[in-house]
Amino acid sequence: MTDGWDGRRPGGYPAPAGGPAPGCPAPGPQGTAGGPTSPWWSDALADPWRDPYAPAAVVIPAAPPDPASEPEPVSDPDAPRPPGLRQVVLVSLIAALLAGSLGSALTYAFLRGPAVPRLGAESGQAPALAQRKPESLAGVAEKVLPSVVTIRMASLGGISEGSGFVVSTDGHIVTNDHVVSGGTGKATVIFNDGSSAPATVVGQDPESDLAVIKATRTGLRPVEFGDSDGLAVGDPVLAIGSPLSLANTVTAGIVSALDRTMQAGEPGGPTRYYAAIQTDAAVNHGNSGGPLVDGAGRVVGVNSTIKSLVADGQEAGNIGLAFAIPINQAKRVTQDIIGTGKARRTVIGAQVGGTGVTTGGVRLNAVEPSGPAAAAGLKAGDVVLRLDRHPLTEPADLVALVRKYAPGSVVTVEYRRGSTRQNASVTLAADAK
């Protein structure tokens, strides 16, 4: 019985110095001490653990060096240092972002095609009427437009169309007499929101070219009245109405002149007189009866007529010469119409004829014995030169200027009698009609 090794050393291998190891027999023949070499030892020649005669060897690893005993390293402060990890990551990230952006831009450019230049600068804010200041033109238009209407009047010749504006919550509307004259007395009113209502004529004053109709609707928004006597040449104004059937049209201009005396009327019809507000706001057919408003959105006139260069029978158009009835006069007349159904006309109590030969002015052909002119001392043959500082050059000037004032107003009249100039204070009165 053996455990795989022979206690004797294989042949050919000398025993260790000093004889056999303690407890081991000397070598012999095979099967005995000193026998032939055993095959069991053929793979154990280099294995110290299977060679009982190999000396034991213990390998002890060297101890790590003591940092305290090492010399402190010396570095050159001017020598270039390798980039740190943070720098490497940051540079890589920036390069990746730039490459991605460039790639996206190129892709978008190729897909979109040739670039189209964008004109103008974008404000970044959506336009809205709520952002307009009340004193701006847009703010004024927004304030007045809900009170402006289009008027359609049926007549034997067809349908006439004009403009008007609301003056009371219960449906009273002011317009021109020539818008409703010749009609059946029934009209249709179209409001700013597109709705409509029937209306009837309340009263008319052909000589002042004013009329009042009433729509069958309540809860309307009336306009705010201004003071036409407070206007000055150059003041901004807006004309609002339905020129050429274009409803809710707003045009802008200035006051071009004041107290421009007008004598108008159709052949065979009444002659209309008024001292008008002249404006260069664009006014065309269909604007008649619409409001002329100041920079605060207050009505200062009623658009009534225009001047044109066209020949007779041709359609007139705007050339920047439009005329409006002053609202102080229009308000007084319409209040009379609403209250009594007719209007009072202001008179001076004299009949005018020709003009002065050398000094200008208008000549009085006759003076009513109990009229305002006679009470102030004027006589037939006197030449009136000025009425409240307004020079007179045509007979219509005196009539138009007198009708601008309310009955009971006191005006200064400068006149010439013979070679003498005199002044008189005249208290104007209402006619007896």
From TrEMBL:
Keyword hit for Transmembrane: yes
Biased composition (Pro residues): 17-28
Transmembrane segments: 88-111
Superkingdom as given in the UniProt entry: Bacteria
Biased composition (Low complexity): 51-61
UniProt domain PDZ: residue ranges: 337-417
Disordered: region residues: 1-81
GO terms of molecular function: serine-type endopeptidase activity
Keyword annotations from UniProtKB, A to Z: Hydrolase, Membrane, Protease, Transmembrane, Transmembrane helix
GO biological process, one term: proteolysis
Gene3D superfamilies named among the record's database cross-references: 2.30.42.10, Trypsin-like serine proteases (2.40.10.10)
A Pfam family this chain is assigned to: Trypsin_2
PANTHER family in UniProt: PEPTIDASE S12, PROTEASE DO-LIKE 8, CHLOROPLASTIC
Family, per entry: Belongs to the peptidase S1C family.
Protein name: Putative serine protease PepD
